[in-house]
Write the structure tokens for this entry.
Amino acid sequence: MSKKKLRSQEWYGRTGKDGFIYRSWMKNQGLPHHLFEGEKPVIGICNTWSEFTPCNAHFKELAESLKQGIWEAGGFPLEFPVMSLGECSIKPTAMLFRNLASMDVEESIRANPMDGVVLMCGCDKTTPSLVMGAASVDLPTMVISGGPMLVGRFKGRKIGTSDIWRLAEDFKMGRISQEEMIEAEAAMSRSRGSCAPMGTASTMAAMVESLGLSLPDNATIPAADSRRKVLAHMTGIRIVEMVKEDMKMSKILTRKAFENSIMVNAALGGSTNFILHLTAIAKRIGVEIDLTDFDHFSAKIPLIANVQPSGEYWVEDLFYAGGLPAVMREIESALHRDEITANGKTIGENISKAECYDRELIGTMEKPIKPDSGIAVLKGNLCPSGAVIKPSAATPGLLTHTGKAVVFETIDDFKAKVDDPNLDVDENSVLVLKNVGPKGYPGMPEVGNMTLPKKILEKGIKDMVRISDGRMSGTGFGTVVLHVSPESAIGGPLALVQDGDMIELNVPNRTLNLLISDEEFEKRKAAFKPLELPYDRGYVNLFLDRVNQAHDGVDFDFLQGSSGSEVKRDSH
Ligand code: FES
Ligand code: MG
């Protein structure tokens, strides 16, 4: 292979004053001069370690394994921190800051002397923010995820994040005490790693694996398993080779790779958040995908993995059953097998030897876990730019349903009214929550799977049709229509719904309609007043000004596309 001058030599390979400045302070870390002579590719390790992001708290240790691999392969690792978004800690929602973190990542990669980069991703938003930022620079890039937690045990039963929603109902109904809740907290989070079900974190880890940005098995090796460190070590070795091969992200992230990822997500029953993040990543790298692609490519694929919240088991179990390669092998006939991946092999080559060790965990195309999977994209007068629902996590009987709207104008209105015994609601009602979209909340929080009114729960009812312009946790379930676009805060039709209106959901036909006359619809539209959005400074002000709607991935309009990796001017 002809040797290309390394990008990092634009800094370290200079003579005189400039070279002195770029190298001298680096040497205060005890780094010998030969490291700067252009023989060893500089590999940035983009680390989202933070003690406020517990799901990524083991990343300092994991980074050491990466570094060993990079050194072994003749590279020069340099680790750097970026904004870390802990789903469980950040208010009002980590999604508000996904784009901010992606800007941090993009500028940190471009501005620094690195030839390739490894993205250390774990908790939900830490994956899309890093991949989005890196895609806008387009260096050779790999992802290593932190891995899922070991499954917890509480009172003899297995417990993971999906159980929060069940425990919350039990607590609301007085079936479980505060003391028991505290015990359950510790039982659930018994090991390092991200959420144990196929929530957004594992959905994102599977997304990068199916796109080809990581080594095989990245999605499922448990965080606490020593093989996770081996994977990091091997990732370190491979990224150095990728730099030598000049294998940039854009060579991997083709339209067909995105199609593969949509099909794999369907097979997994992955999070609805996948839609927003994959759309945003595609727009960064310049691949055209839209909501209809999610429906179209999902429709071919049944639910193959029996993992919560769509199925019964956990990501840890899925690893023992053969992991993501075994799931992908079952849908191989639908996948684009020739897509190249980070290890230099095709998807087809990567999964050719994968085996299923447990049919309870991994179904087949002929005998799937469930016939319905993936994501259904709805259209209608209530969501002209689309809305989404995850049929595999819904109640089959409610997928075709017409009911009377019970409207909550804001999240505060919902909290104040939902358990009011006088609320005019029954199990056939449709709960409508407004102003939880990208601008309305702001940040599009995971409140779409509203807990049911107490008086409904008391009847033993477990699900109702719920509609909002917000999101749902990847661990959530129910007949929940999400991402209604355009959102209510900017005058989307959801804003026009009133108590008592009839709403018709028909998932087989992919429709969602408000059953009022056109005349009444227009009258309400004319009377609409936008929500007051009381933010006049700082990042939130920028967010409100420039954020796109859900169907466009909730990215900032000015961040779509790439600025490449070149920086023309020096710092002194
Ligand atoms: Fe971090 Fe679930 S809260 S992965
Ligand atoms: Mg989540």
In short: The CA atoms of residues 405 and 430 lie 5 Å apart. The chain has a mean pLDDT of 96. The two ends are 35 Å apart (CA to CA). Residues 226-244 form the longest helix (19 residues).
